[in-house]
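Extended Data, record 3-hydroxyisobutyryl-CoA hydrolase
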Amino acid sequence: MAEVQVVLDRDGGLGRIVLNRPRALNSLTHGMIATIRATLDDWAADDRVRAVVLTGAGERGLCAGADLRAMHREVVAGGAGTRAFFRDEYRLNALIARYPKPFVALMDGITMGGGVGLSGHGAVRVVTERSTVAMPETRIGLVPDVGGSRLLARAPGELGTHLGLTSASMGPGDALLCGFADHFVPSARIPELLEALARDAEPATTVAAHAEPPPPAELAEQRDWIDTCYAADTVEEIVERLLDSGVPEAKESAELVLGNSPTAVKVTLAALRRARALPSLEAVLDQEYRISCAALDGPDLVEGIRAQVIDKDRNPQWSPRTLADVTDADVARFLALREGDELGLA
């Protein structure tokens, strides 16, 4: 029997969407994107549905992002399927942000990449003590997408730049600090919260009533060196500042940046700086779509997924290999609007 990848249910006035690929950390397929979109469209017009809640099956996470093995096969085959996946995924992200009914996302466990796209733009976003939140795209030769570049760009100071260039993860306190979440609810209280959401009329009030003080935000204590180092105009200067700061955590961050795709980190810095000035999530998603389509034509995405997911040797052979080899023209190519790469949201 085929796996039901998205379980749908109504509980009182609550429409429930459960991502149901627990063995794959609920990673997203194109079919799942289509199912969620059709369901949200139906529920928007259904007076019986007062609010929507998104959860993930199993105890490991809400969603680890796109199904990278499937993406690798698609990109190797030419990338048309992945372009269509990105297009429909980003349009779903925009719908969630503008959804006419309260959209509650329970980011319990691993919530990365596409999982952030499904949750981070919701009306009420909940983390637990098990939450690990990240936009780890530069590690696989991609650039933060699904509206993640907008969330990173709006984080306090240069925290978003640090997270985007390093692909570092956030715990629940940092996710709250950086604007990726709204409330902390212990995982043991999630069943109780779901029951209350099905019963109560105001989801935001209900979640707030179940929330507790979060764990400390680790990044809050590192703001001084992060804001100083990542304010530089180029990735090369950022790395130089990190290495010269004398702070052990800064040196570790420099090593993370240098281990990621040189092209991806340079394009990420440019995209985040541009995202700060863009007027809406839709405009950011349009930019991200151009960048993601350009990445499909380069070598690093296939190589990054191979190294991290397929062969798991953790030894990607990036091309170009160094930051110095990535030119301004290379970065501009990712940001340029090419025929056929228009998302058309803004």
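Summary. The longest strand covers residues 6-11.
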